[in-house]
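pinging the channel bc i need a second pair of eyes. not urgent but kinda urgent?? the chain im working w is below, pasted from the shared doc
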Amino acid sequence: MVDMKNPAQYKSGYRAVVDQYYSVQFSINGLINIYQFKLRDISSKGMCIAVKENSIILKYIKTGDMLNIKYCTINMGPAENIKTKIKSINKIDQKCFKGHFILCLSIVKDE
């Protein structure tokens, strides 16, 4: 199991997730759509998704929320439902992500 308090082990743990999965999809209580996002490794805080700043989902989620997220594999194998916590939500101004928020995700392991 990855020790989330050990930066080196955590970095390698989430890196393995980003290498295994291509995208995530989830729904938000109160909204009828299912949202799908490419999984990205663009933050020192871990795996992330980029959400347009005008997306309705930003009104329905906050840091600390737990979601059941479906992780779609790179090799097109069966998707996996994994309990995931939103670690942070930050506006980003990098050139290719201008006008987006970055949601950093953390897989929650059942102890």
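so The CA atoms of residues 70 and 81 lie 4 Å apart. and The chain has a mean pLDDT of 82. — does that match what u expected or am i reading it wrong
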